[in-house]
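[STRUCTURE TOKENS]
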Amino acid sequence: MHRPLAITDDQDLLDDLLRIAAAAGVEIDVAHVAAHARPYWGRAPLVVVGGDLADDLAATGPPPRQNVVIVTRTAGDPDMWRRCVAIGAQAVLELPDAERVLVEELGEAAEPATRAGTVVCVVGGRGGAGATVLSASLALTASRRGLRTLLVDADPLGGGIDVVLGQEQALGARWPDIVGREGRVSFSALHEALPTFGELTVLSWHRGRPAAIPREAMRAVLDAARRGCDLVVVDLPRHVDEGESEALARASATLVVVPADLRGALAAAQTVAVLRRHTGDLRAVLRTGTVDPDVVSTSLDVPCAGVVPDVRNLVETLDRGDPPPLGRTPFGRFCSGLLATLVDTP
């Protein structure tokens, strides 16, 4: 894999570029003289040209190519756009304001997106509705269909979604190992750090003191997952803080699991009112109860995505350390059908 190329003889600018590259988790090649860039020009995934050498580079007549940017520490220099045209650059990035943009450009060049992961959030309309079981079951179903899937446990008070999978002893990072991370995270690093079972990777909680998920940490995880996964399933708590808001804003669909009874409908109405402020596509997944599911869906003004069939002895199954029964079971067929409405399946 070829590395991005920086062309500059400005030591202060180079120090900035090396720091930004480190934040992106990327190593770069450096040419201190414009002529020395020729061997790297055509093969580097991204070329970052310092404003100090842009004219020298133009004089060498480099062949046209994509993914060239000029970077400068001087704001508002009118000559910089002339130099941009002269070397065929696509943009002028002024530091420090454009540091975040450059981190993303370097990271994307070093690890291009191989997938376009669909983010689906799952929330319980009330406590004990079964959102965690549905989240784990959707993720398992997708991974068994050959979809690269990340299952994110965003509920620090849920006891750990790895327990639902029967994988609480699996080695790998949990949220406390991730929350301090800021900036871009590569999917390969995330995948390597987390417990992975076939096509399913799991980010769960440990059994220690719970903590909030910072917005930056959730953003970094979901950005990495969308680049490397087909599907990202996020199991959310009913309260919405910064991390939860970030996940909901990125969701293509949010499933609200609602028991079809009076208390379930009333609690879900409050939950839906909160969720509407953060996400667009809300869908109700109903569990059979004393009220007709269509009546509950209509009362919530949320389209019904399906009615979950009862799963016999589910608690006993999970307590044994076995995952939810899927495959050809009624619940397994339900999850397969629901998945097909959320993402293209093989």
